[in-house]
TrEMBL record:
It is found in: Cytoplasm. The keyword Cytoplasm applies. InterPro entries: Cyclic_Pdiesterase, His_Pase_superF_clade-1, His_PPase_superfam, Phosphatase_SH3-domain, SH3-like_dom_sf, UBA, UBA-like_sf. SUPFAM superfamilies: LigT-like (SSF55144), Phosphoglycerate mutase-like (SSF53254), SH3-domain (SSF50044), UBA-like (SSF46934). The lineage of its organism: Eukaryota, Metazoa, Spiralia, Lophotrochozoa, Mollusca. One of its GO terms (cellular component) is cytoplasm. The keyword Cytoplasm applies. Coiled coil: none annotated. Pfam families: His_Phos_1, UBA_7. This is UBA domain-containing protein. Keywords: Cytoplasm, SH3 domain.
């Protein structure tokens, strides 16, 4: 048969036969999930597809309530969309920033059409069917809905006029009748229909809230959507807090804080806690634990609700519908927000477990220099330029970090400078390249210098793995440069509190106080080489590759002794150090038979970039000259 010749097909078809008749429930059960769990996931995600439901199940794999059969609570809302919605959102933001939290901030602007009602997870599909059945009456709205302003002590709202109340009652009645056919009971709303603007606030806030509320242009165009939402009943009386800073647990009873997650908290926690640590439950995972309150901020509970369906109200004989503004806050996020979040937590779980299997092959030791450091770019006096007398930080160059971690004394940054913005990018880019070429890192040891901790963290992030850092003072650079005293480093516990993945149980081979200020260059080679040999010996049985992140000299001093070579002279050492680039990496590999180590050929390309010096006086001075 001739090579590379495409043979003709005797039977051809342009269509791929696929069984598209299977429901999400059937597919999830075919994937191995139980019927109860599958139905629960479909309900929790609004029956929006198998992918989202399976992501939800995987993120809730350790949720203790996963197998508890507790139906969700549902409600029917009428929600404004368009210019009026935007004005209402602005009011909510202004009232919060001006007068503080009140009861209305727990929800987005809406008209409640029904009290909460429960639906078994197995009957969730009935909700969309009932909503679709109401579509005809939704197209017969009696003109534009004009709300009436109302205010009294401790309450401000916008009320629905009687004519529209009767029409909306008919909509709810038809929706209820469809649910009743499926055995679902739902009461109608007994109170006068309205949008709550503010309630449960201090009496002295009344005048300001009324002033802000009266600035809302109630004649602004608006489209109204009929929507079905649901919530988890076990958190009905809980406060919702949004994670604003990630946190990795230090103790077994602590809760991981994931960027984008929400924490559900019993309000009694605030009166019981004396240290701003509270017991809470992750919305993304269902796992409970202690978390640091300052890493979260209170937000509306509706962020954790699930949208099950939405249809617009349209006036009879209406020619033009109001265009919804895609930038409007809550409208956008209810539809798309949770997809990425659930996928994110599943991805994070994979990354957390993505400490690669230790293959039985030759071990490698990767030794790396930190990224670009602040003091080498902006001078030793950079702290004087960026901090005021009270320690407040101001970013004066885009290559400086946006924020600085709090230290006991901001001047500690002088001797323990962080990475620049470019330095942080260097670490991430290097890690991403290591990922591309299939590099495996199993154990990480780091000099206590903050720039080294940042470098290791950035590299691992780019590599897509989560490996705890072992802070080893014995890996610090030559002490001849520190005759006036050591830097004041972050402790492992402090680093962990700031969100770094650090093994706080690790006992270093050499603690900071035991470092010898009188060491020679030869002593420095001996100290670093012995530390490297002890680290490799520690992991000899279990195997795996080791990463050491240190300083310019680290690449030579941590490998030369392991390679069986004698220390370099002082002149040779000082000649090598300036030539090691930021994020430079060297690799030595162990021979499995002889157990001897050898230096490997460079495999990481250089990361070259030019200078971009600051012009004295800035651009304006340059152009005026």
């Amino acid at each position: 048969m001739a090579a590379n010749v495409l043979p003709p097909r005797l039977k051809k078809t342009d269509s791929l036969k696929m069984d598209k008749s299977k429901s999400s429930l059937e597919i999830l059960m075919q994937m191995g999930f139980s019927k109860q769990r599958s139905e629960k996931a479909i309900a929790a995600t609004g029956d929006r597809g198998v992918q989202l439901a399976s992501d939800w199940l995987l993120s809730h794999v350790n949720d203790p309530s996963l197998d508890i059969n507790e139906p969700r609570q549902y409600m029917l809302y009428l929600c404004p969309v368009g210019p009026l919605q935007k004005l209402l959102t602005v009011f909510f933001e202004k009232s919060l920033s001006t007068c503080g939290w009140n009861g209305a901030h727990s929800y987005f602007p809406h008209i409640t059409l029904t009290p909460f009602f429960t639906v078994e997870d197995s009957k969730v599909s009935v909700l969309k069917h009932a909503l679709n059945k109401a579509e005809t009456v939704l197209k017969q709205a009696p003109g534009s809905l004009q709300l009436d302003f109302f205010s009294q002590n401790n309450f401000i709202g916008l009320f629905v006029p009687d004519t529209y109340f009767r029409y909306l009652s008919e909509v709810v009645s038809q929706f209820s009748a469809e649910l009743k056919k499926a055995g679902i009971s739902m009461e109608t709303h007994k109170k006068q229909l309205h949008i709550t603007l503010a309630y449960q606030y201090a009496a002295n806030q009344n005048d300001m809230l009324n002033k802000l509320a009266k600035e809302i242009d109630l004649s602004a165009p608006c489209q109204w959507d009929l929507r079905i939402y649901s919530r988890d009943p076990k958190f009905a009386k809980h406060e919702v807090r949004k994670v604003i800073k990630a946190y990795q647990p230090c103790l077994i009873d602590e809760l991981e804080l994931i960027d984008g997650d929400f924490i559900l908290v019993d309000p009694h926690e605030y009166t019981q806690s004396k240290d701003q640590w509270y017991q809470g439950t992750s919305w993304l995972t269902g796992i409970s634990g202690m978390f640091p309150g300052p890493y979260t901020v209170r937000t509306a509970e509706t962020w954790t609700w699930t949208l099950h369906g939405s249809l617009p109200l349209t006036e009879a004989n209406a020619a033009i519908a109001i265009e919804a503004n895609g930038e409007d806050h809550y409208d956008n996020l209810w539809r798309d927000h949770r997809d990425d979040l659930y996928a994110k937590i599943v991805k994070n779980k994979k990354e957390q477990n993505n400490v690669p299997e230790k293959k039985k092959g030759p071990r490698k030791l990767y030794v790396m220099r930190h990224g670009e450091r602040m003091d080498f770019i902006f001078g030793r006096d950079w702290c004087e330029k960026c901090f005021d007398a009270t320690g407040n930080y101001k970013r004066i160059d885009l290559n400086m970090p946006k924020t600085m971690l709090k230290r006991n004394n901001f001047l500690d940054n002088v001797k323990d400078a962080p990475l620049t913005t470019i330095g942080q990018m260097q670490t991430l880019i290097t890690g991403e390249f290591l990922l591309e070429i299939g590099t495996v890192i199993n154990h990480v040891y780091v000099s206590p210098s903050f720039r080294c901790v940042q470098t290791a963290t950035g590299l691992l992030k780019g590599l897509g793995v989560s490996v705890p850092l072992h802070i080893e003072p014995g890996l610090f650079e030559w002490l001849g440069w520190y005759q006036l005293g050591l830097p004041r480093w972050f402790t492992p516990q402090e680093l962990q509190q700031h969100g770094f993945s650090v093994d706080t149980s690790y006992v270093p081979y050499i603690s900071g106080p035991k470092l010898d200020f009188d060491e020679t260059i030869e002593d420095y080679y001996k100290r670093s080489g012995e530390i490297a040999k002890k680290i490799l010996k520690k992991h000899e049985v279990e195997g795996g590759n080791v990463l050491i992140v240190g300083h310019a000299g680290t690449l030579d001093v941590c490998t030369r002794h392991v390679l069986g070579k004698s220390p370099r002279s002082s002149g040779e050492f000082h000649d090598i150090c300036p030539k090691v680039p930021y994020c430079g990496i060297c690799v030595i590999q162990e021979d499995m038979q002889s157990k001897k180590w050898s230096l490997q050929q460079d495999f990481v390309p250089p990361l070259t970039h030019g200078q971009n010096k600051l012009s004295t006086g800035g651009i304006i001075h340059l152009l005026k000259s």
